[in-house]
C-alpha cells in the first residue's frame, strides 16, 4: 500500500520531566521525601517496564520513545509517577493520546475503505462507511478487541479501580495514538500495520 499521498504527521516531542535514578531518590536526608506529584496526588511510583513491553509485543511495534507508550496506558490520575528503565517520570493521563488515536484510526480506516474493491472491481458505496465505522471503532468494538488481545493487563488504573469496557476502548485509542506520534513521518503506515496485525480490518466489507 502506498502512503505517499498522505501528509506526514509532525513528529511528537514528548515533554519530559528531569529523570531521577531510583537509587538517588532515597539518598535525600529526609526519609519522607516526596516529589510534587506524590504530594499532590498521594500516589506511589509504579514501575511499568513490563507493561510497555507487553504493549509492544501485542502490537509488534517497538517504541523509540518509551515515555509516550507509558502515557498511553496511564489512567490512574491526571498525573502519575511511573518508573521506566530505572528512571522516574511524571506522566500525564492518556486522554490527549486517546483523541489522537481516535482521529488517526478514522483516517487509516477511511483510506482502507476507499481502496477496497469487490470481486467485480467496484468500490464500496458511501452508505457502507457508517456500518463499517460503527462495527470497528465503537466503544463496544474497541473494548472487545482490547480485552481479547489482553491489553487490559497493561493499563495503569487508579488504585482499587476495576478496568471497564469504556476504559479499554479509550486505552486502545491512546495506544494507537502513541504509535502514530512515535512513528513521526511514518505514522500512517505504522498505524495501518498495527491495526492489520491486531485484526482490526477483519470485516467482510474490507476484504480485498
Automatic annotation (TrEMBL):
- The protein's superkingdom reads Eukaryota
Question: Looking at the keywords, is RNA-binding present?
Answer: yes
Query: Which processes are annotated in GO (biological process)?
Result: regulation of gene expression; RNA processing
Listed Pfam families:
Ribonuclease_3 (PF00636)
> What InterPro entries is this protein classified in?
RNase_III_dom, RNase_III_sf
Cellular component (GO) terms are: nucleus
Gene Ontology molecular function terms on file: double-stranded RNA binding; ribonuclease III activity
SUPFAM superfamilies listed in its UniProt record: RNase III domain-like
Keywords, in A-Z order: RNA-binding
RNase III domain location, by residue? 52-184
Q: Which PANTHER family match?
A: RIBONUCLEASE 3, RIBONUCLEASE III
Q: What is this protein called?
A: RNase III domain-containing protein
Look up and give the organism this protein is from: Cochliobolus sativus (strain ND90Pr / ATCC 201652) (Common root rot and spot blotch fungus)
Amino acid at each position: 500500500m502506498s502512503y505517499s499521498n498522505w501528509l506526514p504527521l509532525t513528529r511528537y516531542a514528548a515533554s519530559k520531566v528531569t529523570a531521577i535514578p531510583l537509587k538517588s531518590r532515597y539518598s535525600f536526608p529526609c526519609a519522607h521525601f516526596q516529589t510534587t506529584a506524590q504530594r499532590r496526588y498521594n500516589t506511589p511510583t509504579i514501575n511499568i517496564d513490563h507493561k510497555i513491553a507487553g504493549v509492544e509485543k501485542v502490537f509488534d511495534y517497538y517504541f523509540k520513545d518509551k515515555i509516550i507508550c507509558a502515557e498511553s496506558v496511564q489512567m490512574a490520575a491526571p498525573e502519575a509517577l511511573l518508573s521506566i528503565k530505572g528512571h522516574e517520570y511524571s506522566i500525564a493521563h492518556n486522554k490527549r493520546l486517546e483523541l489522537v488515536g481516535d482521529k488517526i484510526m478514522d483516517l487509516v480506516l477511511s483510506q482502507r475503505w476507499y481502496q477496497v474493491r469487490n470481486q467485480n472491481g467496484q468500490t464500496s458505496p458511501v452508505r457502507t462507511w457508517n456500518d463499517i465505522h460503527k462495527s470497528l471503532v465503537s466503544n463496544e468494538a474497541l473494548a472487545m478487541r482490547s480485552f481479547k488481545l489482553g491489553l487490559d493487563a497493561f493499563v495503569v488504573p487508579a488504585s482499587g479501580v476495576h478496568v471497564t469496557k469504556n476504559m479499554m476502548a479509550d486505552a486502545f485509542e491512546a495506544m494507537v495514538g502513541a504509535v502514530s506520534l512515535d512513528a513521526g513521518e511514518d505514522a500512517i503506515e505504522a498505524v495501518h500495520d498495527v491495526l492489520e496485525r491486531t485484526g482490526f480490518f477483519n470485516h467482510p466489507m474490507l476484504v480485498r
